[in-house]
UniProtKB/TrEMBL annotation:
Annotated source species: Glycomyces buryatensis
Short name of any one Pfam family annotated for the protein: Pkinase
Keywords attached to this entry: ATP-binding, Kinase, Nucleotide-binding, Serine/threonine-protein kinase, Transferase
PANTHER family in the record: MITOGEN-ACTIVATED PROTEIN KINASE KINASE KINASE 20-RELATED, SERINE_THREONINE-PROTEIN KINASE NEKL-3
Domain Protein kinase: 1-263
Gene3D superfamilies: Transferase(Phosphotransferase) domain 1
Molecular function terms, GO-annotated: ATP binding; protein serine/threonine kinase activity
Protein name per its UniProtKB record: non-specific serine/threonine protein kinase
EC number(s) stated in the UniProt entry for this protein: 2.7.11.1
UniProt superkingdom: Bacteria
């Protein structure tokens, strides 16, 4: 039975993710012991003005009126030793999973999705809050395909972590994202929501490329938004207006809600057959997996050590990404990525079904070091973050290394080169392959 402990009002039992800003756990609260929570805990203790800023943000969050399409905040505050924490309801599936499994939604469903989420975002904005990370992976899918926006920690004081640029990053925030800074605005939320709707229709945006250069190219963001074959042109016109490169010319979330509500879906449709799938660049894959929580380390402060100067030979060909993009090793960073991890079931592969077995198999591949976290990319690849005490020379600070293996029957075969055929994008990004 896994060990448990408490974080404020929440009981946590599994570590889902740890980054330089916070740790994220699965957990419950006494008021709803059957409900699944994602519990974010800052590594840093706060006092003085920073404490007041966080508590003011927490008061705004808890003061929001209940909304059917906003994931409920179950607990927020400070731990006994002064670390900010946030506990939010979650599910095991997201809109990203749904679109991957079923493909694009019909125009009527996308309009309904837009009305529901834009109304939820309008409530969030009226409460004086900015989301900053609206993406399919942060929209939960509950019973009956009920959708809820989550991942409030992305722009929360103290809990916030910079996100690398993505197709959902508004053009006015691209420079900050490339620089590894946190940037968000109400107009940026509208832009991201419009990108979600366009993705749900199966559209291909000019900047939704797999390369990081395309994602962050401001010139591409100025390109016209193309109509989607077989989809009502008036619907994509409204979405395109919300994707305008000038934030001053985008509708507010409330105006977008009203526009979609009044929309008549009998307008002309763009010629051609409707897309059969959603572009992978708009549904980036993730693979972070939960690991068992150790009582001795679950709430230990994160102390990042220097990068290893002598990487093991099998990873010498792996390029080093910029600090902002490599912060989390995935398209989504920090606590936001952890929210996605909390909502996904484990892989069907046998080694991925049991965290203890997965950790043991990875330990067999290591000469030394401590596994910080491990996860599976589908049922063909395994990855892990490993801490080495003493650094490469044995007398320095702890160093961290990212490793990956291909699952071949009962064996794990080390990934030695970014050019290996068949490496999924999640592994390439985790290893910071250029």
């Amino acid at each position: 039975m896994p060990q448990t402990t408490t974080v404020g009002a929440a009981t946590v039992d599994r570590l889902l993710h740890r980054d330089p800003v916070c740790s994220v756990f699965s957990g419950t609260v006494p008021a709803d012991p059957a409900g699944l929570l994602c519990v974010t805990v800052a590594h840093e203790r706060v006092d003085g003005s920073r404490r007041e800023v966080f508590l003011e943000w927490a008061a705004k969050l808890t003061g929001l009126p209940a909304h059917p399409h906003l994931s409920p905040c179950s607990a927020v505050g400070l731990t006994e030793n002064g670390r900010p924490y946030l506990a939010v309801g979650t599910t095991r599936r997201t809109l990203s999973d749904l679109l991957t499994e079923t493909g694009p939604m019909p125009a009527g469903q996308v309009r309904a999705l837009g009305v529901a989420l834009s109304d939820a975002v309008a409530v969030y904005h009226r409460g004086g809050l900015i989301h900053g990370a609206i993406q399919p992976a942060h929209i939960l899918v509950g019973s009956g395909h009920h959708l809820q926006l989550t991942a409030y920690d992305v722009t929360a004081p103290v809990l916030a972590a910079p996100l690398p640029p993505s197709p959902y990053t508004a053009p006015e925030h691209l420079d900050a994202a490339v620089a590894g800074e946190v940037a968000a605005s109400p107009a940026g939320d509208v832009y991201a929501l419009a990108t979600v709707l366009y993705a749900a229709l199966g559209g291909r945006l000019p900047w939704s490329r797999s390369s990081r250069e395309g994602v962050a190219d401001p010139l591409l963001r100025a390109a016209p938004i193309p109509h989607i074959p077989g989809v009502d042109t008036e619907l994509t016109d409204h979405i395109g207006a919300a994707l305008h490169p000038d934030p001053r010319r985008r509708p507010t979330s409330a105006v977008l809600r009203d526009q979609l509500t009044r929309l008549d879906l009998t307008a002309a449709r763009a010629p051609g057959h409707r897309p059969a799938s959603v572009p992978s660049a708009l549904l980036p894959s993730r693979g972070l997996r939960p690991v068992a929580v150790s009582m001795s380390t679950e709430l230990a402060p994160y102390r990042p050590g220097p990068e290893r100067t002598g990487l093991r030979p099998r990873l010498r060909k792996i390029a080093t990404a910029t600090a902002g993009i490599a912060l989390t090793g995935a398209l989504l960073g920090g606590a936001a990525l952890a929210t996605y991890a909390a909502t996904n079931p484990e892989s069907s592969g046998s080694v991925c079904n049991d965290p203890a077995e997965l950790g043991g198999r990875i330990s067999e591949q290591l000469e030394d070091g401590t596994i910080v976290d491990s996860w599976c990319a589908g049922d063909e690849f395994v990855a892990a973050t490993v801490d080495y005490e003493g650094g490469s020379g044995g007398g320095g600070e702890a160093a961290t290394e990212r490793l990956a293996w291909r699952i071949e029957g009962e064996n794990l075969v080390a990934v030695t080169d970014c050019a290996d055929v068949g490496l999924p994008e999640s592994i390439l990004k985790f290893l910071s392959c250029g």
